[in-house]
Amino acid sequence: MSMEDYDFLFKIVLIGNAGVGKTCLVRRFTQGLFPPGQGATIGVDFMIKTVEINGEKVKLQIWDTAGQERFRSITQSYYRSANALILTYDITCEESFRCLPEWLREIEQYASNKVITVLVGNKIDLADKREVSQQRAEEFSEAQDMYYLETSAKESDNVEKLFLDLACRLIGEARRNTLVDNVESPLPGEGKSISYLTCCNFN
Amino acid sequence: MACRRGLVECTAAVDRHICNGVCGCCGALRPRYKRLVDNIFPEDPEDGLVKTNMEKLTFYALSAPEKLDRIGAYLSEKLIRDVSRHRYGYVCIAMEALDQLLMACHCQSINLFVESFLKMVAKLLESEKPDLQILGTNSFVKFANIEEDTPSYHRSYDFFVSRFSEMCHSSHDDLDIRTKIRMSGIKGLQGVVRKTVNDELQANIWDPQHMDKIVPSLLYNLQHTEEAESRSPSPLQTTEKEKESPAELSERCLRELLGRAAYGNIKNAIKPVMIHLDNHSLWEPKTFAVRCFKIIMYSIQPQHSHLVIQQLLGHLDANSKSAATVRAGIVEVLSEAAVIAASGSVGPTVLEVFNTLLRQLRLSIDYALTGSYDCAISGGTKIIKEHEERMFQEAVIKTTGSFASTLPTYQRSEVMLFIMSKVPLPSLHHPLDTGRAGENRNRLTQIMLLKSLLQVSTGFQCSNMLTALPSSFLDRLLSATLMEDSEIRLFVLQILISFIDRHGNKHKFQTISTIGDISILKLKVDKCSRQDTVFMKKNSQQLYRHMYLACKEETNGRAHYEALYCLLALTSIELANEEVVVDLIRLVLAMQEVALVNEDNLPLYSRCALYALGAAYLNLISQLTTVPAFCQHIHEVIEMRQKEAPYLLPEGVFAEKPRLSRNLDRLGPEILFRQSKISEVLGGSGYNSDRLSTPYVPQLTDEDRLSKRKSIGETISLQVEVESRNSPEKEERAPAEEITYETLKKAIVDSVAVEEQERERRRQVVEKFQKAPFEEIAAHCGARATLLQSKLNQIFEITIRPPPSPSGTITAAYGQPQSHSIPVYEMKFPDLCVY
Questions:
Q1: What is the arithmetic mean of pLDDT over B491-500?
Q2: Residue of B117, B250, B277 lying closest to B185 (CA atoms)
Q3: What's the ipTM?
Q4: Alpha-carbon distance B82 to B37, whole Å?
Q5: Nearest Cα to B30, choosing from B42, B16, B43?
Q6: Does A144 touch chain B (CB under 8 A)?
Q7: Rounded distance, CA B620 to CA B641, Å?
Q8: Residue B591's pLDDT is what?
Q9: Pick from B761, B754, B744: nearest CA to B586
């Protein structure tokens, strides 16, 4: 009898400049709502959501960090244990895009080297105010070896996809890791699970 | 309505039944522990835990502890299901049962039970519902207070630390709920700390990954004290609420955490504090930073306090290029922390502490002078405000003082030596930076370091002056370079005063006056100790010389004379034996002579001040010696001055509007203190009258030759000049002191006129020539040659006005190569002459 109510547990941390819509993305995904006039996050926020992927229960611990500089030290401490990072910027705000290299440095410094990073351009509902072209962001993410997705928390565009795709990738990664760990003494019947990666793909 | 509710409950019960059925354990066949667990749940969750059945379960668990883990697993399974179905009443009941079981069972098998317990707490904490979060936290806190006697290897508190820290930052819309959640978070963190801190097998709570969450969370709540207090509406509630405020609680938690920190953990605990203060820019108003570090210093184990200081110093260094206000904040915190840490604050690396502070001081001086943090990259992005830098410098100086005050005497004098060694002084090997900027920097550095020194020396009470003030220190302090600038000169005098004043008499001599009865000063006097006598034997000449030269400076102001008076007075009561008293009187009379002869063309004020200084000091010393005839003479002169020349008394000169007279050249002998009279009256009381009647002449030191200012050599030459001018008169008065070539030579070879010392000096010279290495002797002679040259110049200037043609005897004597363009007396001796 298993006491666990899930098959996989992943920690996902959202980072990015203040006001790019991290909290809204999380709210949209976990609660299905878009809180207008969402205030600035203090320190860090916690949400949990269990999703089912291919019949497996995946519990996502989502840590939504404050973008403000003053909380940087506490938010950094959450990077370390993260399985995945969602690096968010605002497509209508050039500044938030320009800060990305700085965020990548932070990731380099504080996060584990196995972490999966996804770049998210939020607020595509405000297309007429766009300051960062999709192509530019795609080029950037390619150069940095990240997945890239454009979302709108308001219109609920791509939000579900973002988290589900990420969960898929994490499962694949987790399986591969157990495989690598067991390479010394492979268990019978384990070898076939290598093709799980194909269950979802980005873009 | 009630019917409908009953229905809901009914279906719920059926639900449960079906579940059990699904599990494959129907009714009576279910294991006993499952039946016991099921029975504690009432039909209606509003009824609460079924107490009698709970007792049965507890009894069963106690009598069959091997079943405990299964009970736990089953309970948690039920609870998790209830949470997902939003049956919160049952959740609470399950939790209550768990708590009771946990409390009741202190046995080995608790370990497995704990695992399912923690899973349930985690489940509750995952919930968005504040009630469940709080419920989970409360259970966790109860658990944290249980002391387990068996180690547990596989327990991870990562999630708890993360979640509790997150709760500490709750931004729930409802203020009350927000406060509750935050309180819960703090309590939870406290629980984790309690649970793990002393168990080496468990997750190391001191790892940065945990500390970086725990500490900022506590500080975040701590810094919101004011807000929370101002919000509470009625005064009655205030008292109650304050007990429960998150700020108070987090302070308590922080203290507990720090109190448990071992040597190796301090660093990890303190670092996040400093980063938090950086990020929230809390150094600048500094109240909070000071409060934090007060909490830290008072709660950590005292033997570790120097680690905190070291970290702060390191942080100061890391912030070298931050705004002055930030640095000032850190330094202020350091100062406060040092006082709390008392003797332990500095730890094993005393000098490192002061080195860091002095380095920061120098950096700040540079910043203020250059106007940028980095000469190379002066993009002008950061504008340096000079007054802020100055505030920072003052803060550093203050901090230096508070550190020093925590040190034992021997370390303090070490520190003073260290600071003194950092004061930039010119020397043969290390010429100072030249140019205006360099001079300015040197001057500022000298002032700042002397200020620090003064700060360190205040309250310094050394029992043994000899060890406290080694000559390496005094030499530098009394160096001539430190006399050129009036501000620096005053600092040096004040430092000397605070060294010599060991009985707190300093303030009694703050103003110069000629009081009729010094008993009203209530001076505290100890008899001069043997060490003090030795100290004075060794250093008195140097001290006298310094005072003598200091009094001749034109730029002296009132403060200088007051300091000189204070120094003289303190020397007389702290360090004086008969010999010293005699010398001090000679010194003061020589000062009067300076004012009288006025060969330096001192301004009027300086001359009057010197007379007044003499009057005040002699008034004091006469009363201290208690020789009636001496007192009488002094008294007479002072009375005379009061009548005829009040501008020669301190009350006249050192007033708001000094009364000065233009006519200082014709002073009657009755208003001057006479050496002959004094030596006569004191001689009668057993003082050395021979010595008293010899005028004081300052001793020449090595440094005078190096210094750029008008050297003592010159002073002596001038005296030679004066003496040779007045020679006929002098011959009449003292035929023994006939100026012949021999006496002149003697005066050149041995510039000290003090006769008693001559023999001793000669012996030393002989010894030196016998023992010293060749280079040293050569250097010595070289120095003397320059002295000789300057004196010869002097004499030539006096005697032979028109430059004569190269005079054969002299050139021949010194092997001067012929160079016709320069008059011989202006030629320099070649270096080879030395050898």
A1: 85
A2: B250
A3: 0.84
A4: 14
A5: B16
A6: no
A7: 16
A8: 85
A9: B754
